[in-house]
């Protein structure tokens, strides 16, 4: 009952065991108050919180259940996190339906689009199968991806396959003769997947009509303006003698920089958009600016010098530059078509067509890697003018010459030097390097298994451009941001110097006002002159009077 | 990225076109384990690959071992043999910043300063050091710079304990899709610089255990990160525009995340013109 009796002050245990609280008291001692205390405690724990509706008892029970189920290591250290997770799980159940609708939609939509790629492939029917087995413009993207993968370049297999199917969709929709996966250009919001395409002959007349209509509209406007000006010719300020440099016409579709047509899409599954042909002005401007692509084709390109066009044009210009600089092939794969009288044409035209060489003998991988002379450019290089074939913009037609005679003749601009670029099929060893780095870096894909290695070239001028060759197969590809490499930082062009508003000559230059002394001196000088002149006049009058007198007589 | 999950991670980060050849991947699987054994590392991350320049493109993949704050870097030219690199010092970083151009691919190559101010040259000569820097130091300094500038982790992946040490959060379940698209859900994994400059109102919303690092949304210049959803929206990929080639990937609602660098190791100083 009492246990060990009341302790004396000198004994250990004094003061510890108060009546009713000794450690031996709980079992039998006053069971009712014990039970009451327990019930009170439990009631307290079961009290629901006013803010969240949970109660501590259930929460602790759930937490302990979770810990016992999952048995995490060092549970005591992460107990707070577990508590948070349990609470979070509780809350989530209430909001479940709402959240599901919201979050998962965008991924589902995207998945639908990609699935559509696969569906179309099956739905085309068996009739077309036979046609396709023969000649198909569709490139074997997976094969190319395999070779590039040996070098560590390329998209993941999934993405490559999606691109493959997207290209297939493109070829089935458009009348395409040859098609190639050109590469991927990364952008800020979205990326671009680019396909290089050549139409069947005679298929792309649509665009030229639109441009002619626009030009005629422009001429009409010009005539109206001339009439207005003639009416007001009297009190006009001097006309500006500025003649804008002549617009260099773009190259015809199918030649030079516009040899191929490019289609882009943001993701495989989205529709392909055709890029407009590139004009020399766009290429010249693109050389001076360096901007990231946003991923939207209609985004404006804000830059100095102002880029003539929007992002679609800028993209096309960059693609043209990259293609011109980095489309290479093993030597001998392409050869010039044999034509008679070719060499007699004026220089500068040169040869701009090539065809596959049926007698191509591939070199071994070691040879391809050792020397850069075994590779040649088959992309025509772009001249400074912005075209591949030089054109003299000052060769005027007869109509224009007549008009010029009527207007005032401004200074004749200096004659442009004909620009000559490296001819087609130049070997890579002629490429300029950057500082002490050659323009291209060559290496085999594997040093361990040289028999099956693939020769890989990567460009240092356009980081992201790669080419591989293995036996008779080769290809080029581009993965990157779309900019040229320059060891120096990019310096934007300075604005041109301010034009002189008027020619400055003595009649328009202000002179200083004469000072008082100068004026007095001038006055004195003029008086002297006047006096001298009067004397002379008097003499002359005398002479004249004499003459008159003589005549009268 | 974690060495253990290298193959899967490479697939996720392959959107930028750069990756590893199957040969390298295969050899890495083995050599990383050996590296772990030899140096008794607890964990090993594959950091990435810096391309070297002329002639041979000797790529130097680089590893890291990090636990809390101790980071050691090991480099290799061919992914087979690894050697521990000296840790980066401030001086090395300062010197390396002045160097421009590609890496050479040879760790013992020595760069000469081509352009130095007269003052710097005097200072250097006074110290008795020659103005040459080895490629090894440049490599280490560049890695340090990249990590400091653009090494990122998702919010909640690491926790700060009340004692001040930083630990990985084993309960990290990944960011949700909406969170993953925001730049504020990602932190720089270095000493925070801007944290103290936040207003009191902002600080009140922060959770001291998870928000103890700088988030990305205040990076200068604004817009120096691109956030994209790839693979139909299942992977969030962040690419840095300041160091072109750094790719961070995260699969929302899972524990998978990581970053890897494939590039030339040059800072993109033209960034303000390009945005």
From TrEMBL, chain A:
Residues 202-215, 338-347, 398-417, 533-553 have a biased composition (Acidic residues). GO terms for cellular component: radial spoke. GO terms for biological process: axoneme assembly; cilium movement involved in cell motility. Residues 522-532 have a biased composition (Low complexity). It is found in: Cytoplasm, Cytoskeleton, Cilium axoneme. It comes from the Eukaryota. Keywords: Cell projection, Cilium, Cytoplasm, Cytoskeleton. Residues 201-250, 338-358, 396-430, 488-553 are annotated as: Disordered. PANTHER family: RADIAL SPOKE HEAD 6 HOMOLOG A, RADIAL SPOKEHEAD-RELATED. This is RSH4A protein.
TrEMBL record, chain B:
One of its GO terms (cellular component) is kinocilium. Keywords: Cell projection, Cilium, Cilium biogenesis/degradation, Cytoplasm, Cytoskeleton, Flagellum. It is found in: Cell projection, Kinocilium; Cytoplasm, Cytoskeleton, Flagellum axoneme. The keyword Cytoplasm applies. It comes from the Eukaryota. One of its GO terms (biological process) is axoneme assembly. Coiled coil: none annotated. InterPro entries: RSP9 (IPR055316). Belongs to the flagellar radial spoke RSP9 family. This is Radial spoke head protein 9 homolog.
